[in-house]
Design brief:
alpha+beta, seven-stranded mixed β-sheet, 800 residues, globular
Length: 800
C-alpha cells in the first residue's frame, strides 16, 4: 500500500505527471519522496509498480501516468491532506516538484479561485515560501496568475534579474519574453548618470574633475553645455573604484554582445544636461527610472535669489514660465522631475544609508563653488538650507541625504590634493549608488543583447537611423519575427537606448543615435541668449513657430554631412510624437510652404481679448485635472500637440505659452486648454451668447482630454496622481486654482435644494462665499454618463 502511494505521489512531482521506471532522475525523485514521506519503505535502485495500481495508472512501455485527470485530482487531494502537514513539507514540494506541476497547482495566498478549480495555496509568510515558488518557476512566473500580486513584483525582479519594464507588458508580450528567454540570458552591467542643475552651476566642471582631466594652472572658463552631451562608457568600476574607461586596442572585441565583448566590464555612461530652460522640454527623452542623478547646486548663490540675475549670458528665461524662478525653485523642480521618473523599482531597502530609514534613492547632491562667498553660514549649513526649501508635506525630502551630499570647489585648474579627495568621495558614492540600482546585473535574452551589439556597432560607424527591414534581414540578430523584434525595440526604447514607436507610420524607422536626434531639435529651438535662428522672423520665433525652410537652413549650418536633411521625413514624426513640435495650418501658411509649432518656445502671454472671447458666449465652468504632487512642465506642451491632432486650432494667434484654443468640427463649440502650477484646465464655450452649448459635446471633449492625459502620463512614476474637480470660485482660465480646488465627488456630494450653499472649503471670515453646485456641474455631467468616483482618481502608469 505504501509503495503504491509513494509511486502515485511521485507522479505529482514529475513533468507531465509521468514516471519512467528506467529514468535515473525519476528513480531519484521516487526515492526522495519515499525518504521524505514514507521512510519506512525500503530504498532501492528499482521502482516496482504494484499490480493494485492497474486501474489507477496507465502504462506505456516503461512509463506510468494517471489514468484520468479525475484520478490525478483525487491523488493530489490525498497528498495534500496526508503529506503537507508542516511548512517544511510544503517547502520540500516547492523545491522538488517540476515547474509544470507547481505552475498548474500552486497559487498565492490571496488568489481567488474559480468554481471547481483545484489549487494549492502558498502562504505569504514566511517569505521563503514565495521565494521557493519564484525560484521553481523562474521566468515562467511572468505568465502565471501569481503576477496579479503586484506587491511581489519587486521580489520576482530581484530574485530572477528580470528587467523591471517587462512587468508592465501585457500577457502576450510576457509570453514572448518567456519563450525567447528559454535560451541563454546574459547579464547587463551598464548604468547611466544624469548631471543636472542650473546653467553655470559647474556641471561640466564636475564631470571633468570626475574624469581626472588635467588643466593648466591658469583658470579658464568652461564652455557652456548646449542641449546635452552624452558620454557613452565614460567610466568603469574596477575593484569597487570608479576609473576612466578606455578601450585597449590589443583587445578588440570579438563578434558578440556588448557586455561579453567588453570582457564583463562594468561600465557607466554620463549625460551632461544643459541648464538653459529652453532645453527642458527635451528632458523627457532622457530622464529615466534607470538612471542615477547628480544634482549640482551653486552654493555661492542665495537660494532665494532669482536665477536670471546671474549668468545672463547662459540663462535668460525672459517671457517663459521660468522667468521668476529662484534657485530654490529649480532645486525643487529637479527633485520633482526625478521623483516623477524614478519609480518604486529604485526605492528599496539598502545599507547605503539615507534620510528615510534605509530606503535607497539614486540622487547625489553636489554643492559647487565652495571656494566662493558663503551667504548661508549665518543660517547654518548649506544642506540645511536645501532641506528647508522642501515642504514637510511633500515626499521630496526622502530623496536627499547628508550621506549623499558633497561640497566641492570649482577652481578651473588642476585640483589640489584636498580638492581631489572631495572628488574621490563623490566617485565612491557613485560606485555605491550604481551597485544598488535595480537593473544592475539584470539579465536579458541573448538575442536582445545581440541586437544591442549590432546597433552599437552601427552607431559607432556613424549610422543615425536604421530601417526595420534591415534588422529583420540580418541573420546575426535572428529576430525575424515581427512581434519579437517589436518587443526588443520596445525594451531598448523604454530604457533609453534608442527611440522607437510601434505606430504604423513610425514603426519602420528606429533612431539609434539619441543624442543626434535631440541635437536636431536643439538646433531648431531658440531663446534670446542661445539663438540658433538669428536671421528668421522674430514674430514667429516669439510665437514658437518655424518654417520648414528655416529648419533646413539651420540644419545645413550645423551639419556638414546633411544627415538631418537626409532623415528629415524620418525624424519629424518622432518630434511630433514626443510633443516637441508639430506641423500646423494657419493663415501664416499662406506665406510659407511648411509651418511648424514648438510649444516650449512660445513666449506669448494670454491676451485680455482672448479671455473676453470666452466670456462672449455660453461657457462651462473650468474643469481641472489637478496633479496633487507634481505637474511636469513639458506635459502641457505634449497635450497641446495631441489636441492639434484631434481638433483644428481656433486661431494659431490664440496659442500662448500657457493656453491654447481649438474648435470642434461643428464650429459651435470652442475649447481652451490651459496650464498653471498644479492643474491642466479645460473650458468649453460658444462663439456667442445666442448659441446653445450642448452637454453631450462638453462631455465628449472632457473624455477625450482625459484619455489624452492618461496616455501622456503612462511613462510616469506609478504613484503620480491627479484628481478631476472644479474651483469653488469663478476664476479666469490660467489663474492659479489650488486653494479653490474641490474634487468632483465633493461637489456632487453637496446637499442643497436650490443649488447654492456655503462653500465647505472656506468657512471663516472674509473667505466665506457661496457655491453653486448646479452651475459648476452644468454641461460636464449627466447621471447616465457620469464617471464613477474611482474613474476620477487616476494613478499614473497603472499596470493593465
Amino acid at each position: 500500500m505504501y509503495t503504491s502511494r509513494c509511486l502515485l505521489y511521485s507522479l505529482l512531482f514529475l513533468d507531465e505527471y509521468t514516471l519512467d521506471i528506467n529514468e535515473q532522475g525519476h528513480k531519484e525523485m521516487f526515492n526522495a519522496v519515499r525518504e521524505r514521506y514514507f521512510n519506512d519503505l525500503e530504498s532501492g535502485n528499482e521502482i516496482k509498480v504494484p499490480a493494485e495500481l492497474q486501474g489507477i495508472v496507465n502504462k506505456q512501455e516503461t512509463c506510468y501516468m494517471f489514468k484520468s485527470e479525475e484520478v490525478r485530482q483525487n491523488v493530489m487531494y490525498a497528498f495534500v491532506t496526508e503529506c503537507l502537514v508542516e511548512d517544511s513539507d510544503l517547502e520540500f514540494f516547492l523545491r522538488m516538484a517540476s515547474k509544470h506541476v507547481v505552475s498548474e497547482y500552486c497559487r498565492s495566498w490571496n488568489y481567488e479561485k474559480s468554481d471547481n478549480e483545484k489549487c494549492l495555496y502558498i502562504p505569504d509568510k514566511p517569505k521563503e515560501m514565495y521565494d521557493l515558488f519564484i525560484d521553481n518557476l523562474q521566468v515562467d512566473i511572468l505568465v502565471h496568475c501569481f503576477m496579479s500580486e503586484k506587491e511581489c513584483h519587486s521580489n520576482i525582479r530581484k530574485r530572477l534579474n528580470i528587467p523591471e519594464e517587462i512587468f508592465s507588458w501585457d500577457i502576450d508580450a510576457r509570453k514572448r519574453f518567456v519563450e525567447i528567454s528559454r535560451g541563454k540570458r546574459v547579464e547587463m552591467f551598464h548604468a547611466r548618470g544624469m548631471i543636472v542643475g542650473c546653467a553655470g552651476a559647474g556641471k561640466t566642471t564636475l564631470l571633468e574633475n570626475l574624469k581626472r582631466v588635467k588643466r593648466e594652472n591658469e583658470p579658464e572658463k568652461t564652455e557652456t553645455t548646449v542641449g546635452l552631451d552624452v558620454h557613452e562608457d565614460l567610466f568603469e568600476i574596477i575593484d569597487d573604484k570608479l576609473e576612466d574607461f578606455s578601450t585597449n586596442e590589443d583587445e578588440l572585441p570579438v563578434r558578440g554582445i556588448h557586455y561579453e565583448s567588453s570582457h564583463g566590464k562594468k561600465l557607466i555612461s554620463m549625460t551632461d544636461f544643459a541648464g538653459q530652460v529652453a532645453y527642458y522640454s527635451c528632458h523627457q527623452v532622457y530622464l529615466s527610472r534607470r538612471a542615477f542623478y547628480l544634482i549640482v547646486i551653486d552654493m555661492s548663490k542665495d537660494l532665494k535669489e532669482k536665477v536670471c540675475k546671474h549668468n545672463v549670458d547662459r540663462h535668460n528665461p525672459k517671457g517663459s514660465l521660468f522667468r521668476a524662478w529662484r534657485y530654490k525653485d529649480y532645486f525643487h523642480f529637479w527633485l520633482q522631475s526625478i521623483k516623477t521618473y524614478c519609480d518604486e523599482g529604485n526605492t528599496h531597502p539598502t545599507d547605503l544609508g539615507t534620510a528615510s530609514q534605509g530606503v535607497f534613492h539614486p540622487v547625489i547632491l553636489v554643492a559647487s563653488h565652495k571656494d566662493k562667498q558663503s551667504w548661508w553660514k549665518k543660517r547654518g549649513s548649506f544642506f540645511g538650507q536645501l532641506n528647508k526649501c522642501l515642504s514637510e508635506s511633500q515626499t521630496l525630502k526622502e530623496l536627499i541625504s547628508p550621506r549623499r551630499y558633497f561640497e566641492v570647489e570649482c577652481p578651473g585648474k588642476t585640483l589640489t590634493n584636498d580638492q581631489e579627495e572631495k572628488i574621490e568621495e563623490v566617485r565612491n558614492c557613485i560606485v555605491e549608488t550604481v551597485k544598488q540600482l535595480p537593473h544592475w546585473g539584470e539579465k536579458i535574452p541573448l538575442k536582445w543583447a545581440n541586437l544591442e551589439e549590432f546597433l552599437r556597432m552601427r552607431k559607432e560607424e556613424g549610422v543615425k537611423v536604421i530601417k526595420r527591414q534591415d534588422l529583420k534581414a540580418n541573420g546575426e540578430i535572428d529576430l525575424s519575427d515581427d512581434d519579437d523584434l517589436n518587443d526588443a525595440l520596445r525594451f531598448f526604447h523604454e530604457i533609453g537606448q534608442l527611440i522607437y514607436f510601434s505606430e504604423k507610420e513610425m514603426k519602420n524607422v528606429i533612431v539609434i543615435n539619441v543624442q543626434w536626434f535631440v541635437d536636431g531639435f536643439k538646433y531648431i529651438i531658440t531663446d534670446e541668449t542661445h539663438l540658433a535662428r538669428k536671421d528668421c522672423n522674430s514674430t514667429l520665433i516669439k510665437a514658437g513657430k518655424i518654417t520648414g525652410k528655416e529648419i533646413e537652413e539651420v540644419w545645413r549650418k550645423v551639419d556638414s554631412e546633411k544627415s538631418y536633411i537626409h532623415h528629415k521625413q524620418d525624424i519629424l514624426p518622432y518630434l511630433d510624437k514626443l510633443g516637441l513640435m508639430t506641423k500646423i495650418q494657419s493663415k501664416d501658411n499662406e506665406a510659407y510652404d511648411e509651418l511648424y509649432y514648438i510649444p516650449s518656445m512660445n513666449r506669448i502671454d494670454l491676451a485680455k481679448e482672448y479671455k473676453e472671447a470666452i466670456n462672449g458666449g455660453q461657457k462651462t465652468s473650468i474643469i481641472l485635472f489637478h496633479f496633487k504632487s507634481y505637474l511636469p512642465h513639458f506635459f502641457f506642451f505634449r497635450l497641446v500637440v495631441k489636441c492639434l491632432h484631434k481638433w483644428k486650432a481656433l486661431n494659431m494667434e490664440m496659442f500662448c505659452k500657457n493656453a491654447a484654443f481649438y474648435k470642434m468640427d461643428d464650429a459651435g463649440h470652442y475649447i481652451v486648454i490651459a496650464v498653471n502650477k498644479t492643474s491642466i484646465q479645460l473650458q468649453v464655450f460658444t462663439p456667442e451668447k445666442g448659441m446653445d452649448l450642448q452637454t453631450e459635446s462638453a462631455i465628449e471633449i472632457r473624455e477625450t482630454v482625459k484619455s489624452m492625459i492618461h496616455e501622456i502620463t503612462q511613462t510616469f512614476h506609478r504613484q503620480t496622481k491627479y484628481e478631476i474637480g472644479y474651483t469653488c470660485k469663478d476664476i479666469n482660465i490660467t489663474e492659479e486654482d489650488e486653494e479653490f480646488f474641490l474634487t468632483e465627488e465633493e461637489v456632487k456630494a453637496l446637499k442643497t435644494e436650490t443649488g447654492k450653499r456655503r462653500c465647505p472649503k472656506h468657512i471663516m471670515g472674509k473667505q466665506i462665499h457661496d457655491i453653486d453646485k448646479n452651475e459648476i456641474l452644468r454641461f460636464w455631467w449627466k447621471e447616465d454618463t457620469a464617471s464613477s468616483p474611482r474613474d476620477n482618481h487616476q494613478i499614473i502608469n497603472e499596470s493593465e
